[in-house]
Amino acid sequence: MNLNLTGHHVEITPAMRDYVTSKIKKITRHFDHVIDVSVILSVEKLKQKAEANVHVRGKDIFVETDSADMYASIDSLVDKLDRQILRHKEKNINNRNNGALKNRETEVPE
């Protein structure tokens, strides 16, 4: 997994980098097929904004959040991302299982 961390109008400190890295590992624990993660942290007046674009096999997942605190934005971002990744994983499993059932139904027993 490649992690690209960018800051717009904010300097990425080592503490922020470590925090984002530790939170993103939560996602890879649930879903192993994450190829690339791109995180953008930005400050716009009083809003601390966090965006993530996750590239998994067959799909790109985009999530953005904002709040008054950067660490709260990162926490919210990871929660949303985790929900979307789990939903994507469940859809893949359901499609795979439904495909196997369809193949069994089309086979003619002798």
Can you tag this structure with a few keywords?
single chain, 110 residues, alpha+beta, Double Stranded RNA Binding Domain, 4-stranded mixed beta sheet, 2 helices, 4 strands
Q: In CATH, what is the class?
A: Alpha Beta
The number of domains: 1
Count up the helices. Answer: 2
Taking the alpha carbons of the first and last residues, their distance comes to 48 Å
* Overall 3D shape: elongated
Major sheet: size, sense and barrel closure? 4 strands, mixed
What would you give as the CATH superfamily?
Answer: Ribosome hibernation promotion factor-like
**Count of extended strands:** 4
Radius of gyration, in angstroms, nearest whole number:
18 Å
Uncertain runs with pLDDT below 50, 5 residues or more? none
Please give the order of strands in the largest beta sheet: 1-2-3-4
Q: Give the ordered list of helices and strands.
A: EHEEEH
**CATH architect. name:** 2-Layer Sandwich
- Average pLDDT confidence is 87
CATH-assigned fold name: Double Stranded RNA Binding Domain
Helix content: 40-55%
Strand content: 25-35%
The chain-level structural class is alpha+beta
